[in-house]
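Researcher: Here's the sequence for the chain we discussed earlier.
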Amino acid sequence: MEIYPSHKFWESDLEVPVNLLLDRFQDSNIRQSWLDSLSGKQLSIIFQHCFKNHLNGQLFQDGDYDDRSTQQKRKILASYSDSLFNYYLISYFDRTKLEATVSEVARFALTQELMRSYLIKNNTKYDKRSLLFLLFHINCELLKSVYHFDKVQKRGFVSFALQKSPRQINTSFKEFMSQEAVEQILKFENQLQGFFHHQDRIYMFVRRGSDMDLLLNSNKVVHGHKPEWMILDFSIDGTKVNLCAKNTNKAVEIANSIVSGYFNCECTFVNIQDKNFLLQVHKFLQACIEGSDPNICIFELNFKSDYFKNSNTYLTLSVKPYDPIAPELHILKPSIGNILQSIQSAKVMFQNKKVTFSFKSSGEIYYSEHPLNKKEREDLKKHMEQSYGLKILSRANC
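Model: Thanks. This is the structure I predict for it:
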């Protein structure tokens, strides 16, 4: 069974269980069931690639590929299903990937016209699997970009900045961030998995062994370490970094070593905990409650009140998303007083996503980043900073 580009690419780089899937794929019923699950467009991509410019191309005249019905294509491909294992692997790879991730990577490799032809669901979403098939044909390394960027989309980050700004040097930080330079800095237990450049950010992915564990493989027990991923999201000049890691101290140590090597002097990243003034926080809450912020709509408040007999009593007020909450607060005001300074958390709608804010007495604001993709998180942070001068922090680091 042909595996392109290599067994290592799928098993190690994309963490796809090749041997397990190969055993399944050798079952003709499973192969046929998988072929039956493919849409017409997905079949067309495979069909053209398998026969065009190959020996099998002699089966058709030029231009006849698209003249075949979906069922005819499915039947013909079934005869060559042994050579389709790579597409079976991509189908497995596709299962947990966000549509936003796949389409974002595809925009850099495919034309707008081609992208539009794979819109589905009332032209609001893209056919992920078709895009992955196309990316694989262009360059299989693009699947690594999808794998890495998907991790960025799904995780929260802690922001750091250099304690002291060093003097800029002639070589750009992007040029410095090569595989050779970074692997010299990383120790044996840390594996560089690659880089991803996106919107003036340099994402670096590191995999390392963490906790000891075992797994059952057939009738054997395999001992080893659980994989732990670190994501270092550097600014284009290397002076700021967002970190996602189970062991943040280790990630900071790696980031310090990288920028120290770049600037040729000792550099230290420190956690950015910009203090918000409570007056700014209250101004933000007031604007959202009154409905004067068109981008953020509060639909639930959790708060305490000086009117309550027990200081540990909390009250939650909810309305339907996008319904005004101010009239309900006005009705309750004689019983609860002004609760603006006593709000503990709020649920809001932002870009049609439900986001929870948590407010600390010291001024910090934490938000639930998981409902949002990477772009939406950046949009929310930008809106909060530009409109209210507020820094918001990932709830994962609360």
